[in-house]
Write a structure and sequence with these properties.
- The protein has 221 residues and is of the alpha+beta class.
- The protein folds into two domains: 6-185, M1 Pyruvate Kinase, Domain 3 (Beta Barrel), CATH 2.40.33.20; 188-221, no CATH class.
- It is built from six helices and 13 strands.
- The strands form three sheets. Strands 1-8-7-11-10-9-13 form a seven-stranded mixed barrel.
- α1 (68-76) links the parallel β7 (62-66) and β8 (93-95).
- α5 (191-199) packs antiparallel against α6.
- The longest helix is centred in the last third of the chain and has 13 residues, at 205-217.
Length: 221
């Protein structure tokens, strides 16, 4: 079953700049942009990443997040409520209604003239702690499961805030982003889960490698 279409509430991009007291180079801080934005195979026009070994690339080209998560963050950290505005979690695209439980690995999403494929959840990053100067934030992200999700760009195009986002293909309905994120948190999975990961359409190559190595270690591949 496909989720209902969601409005793309906001688009954010960021340049590499010093982050936190140590001035770590990072593109974490994102600012909303108005009007049409071009989406290429490596992400949004005007967006940048500092550490390309961890962020960016064709399977992490665009980072999406659901607006419902912001209410949970404000409840958890009321002292940061004023700073918890769209883009504060490092996302490029903020969607109304969608959550990690509703969006699945491999979902093909149509927004404007672009087509994006969900590839993986985002794992907790120390830069979230640097941005808010609060070491509790990455731990809370893990506990609450508010990972958001990365997209690869299948068809470059143009998008803008207010566009409707629609899931037009769902090859893996039993693998919501939340399920994979929970498996990541356990740092282990059953042999059956590993076999399923190997077959998941659209899954990032890193997770295929992890699944393959897990099966090899169990002499199951």
């Amino acid at each position: 079953m496909m989720p209902a279409a969601a409005s793309l509430l906001s688009i954010q991009v960021g340049r590499v700049a010093p982050l936190g007291p140590q001035g770590v180079p990072s593109g974490y801080v994102k600012r909303p942009v108005a009007g049409p934005v071009d989406v290429g195979t490596l992400g949004l026009d005007g967006d940048a990443q500092a550490d390309l070994l961890v962020h960016g690339g064709p399977e992490k080209a665009v980072y999406g997040y659901g607006e419902p998560a912001y209410a949970r963050w404000r409840d958890e950290f009321p002292e940061h409520a004023a700073r918890l505005v769209f883009g504060a979690l490092g996302e490029n695209l903020t969607f109304a209604d969608w959550t990690e439980a509703e969006i699945c690995i491999g979902d093909l999403v149509a927004i404007g003239t672009a087509r994006l494929r969900v590839t993986q959840p985002r794992e907790p990053c120390f830069k979230l702690a640097l941005h808010f100067q609060d070491s509790r934030m990455p731990v809370a992200l893990r506990r609450m499961g508010l990972s958001g999700w990365y997209y690869g760009v299948v068809t470059p195009g143009t998008i803008q805030a207010g566009d409707a986002a629609r899931v037009i293909e769902r090859p893996n309905p039993t693998w919501p982003v939340a399920r994979l994120f929970a498996l990541v948190g356990r740092k282990s999975g059953t042999a059956e889960e590993m076999r399923e990961l190997l077959a998941l359409e659209g899954l990032a190559a890193r997770w295929r490698r992890i699944a393959r190595e897990s099966l090899r270690q169990q002499d199951l591949l």
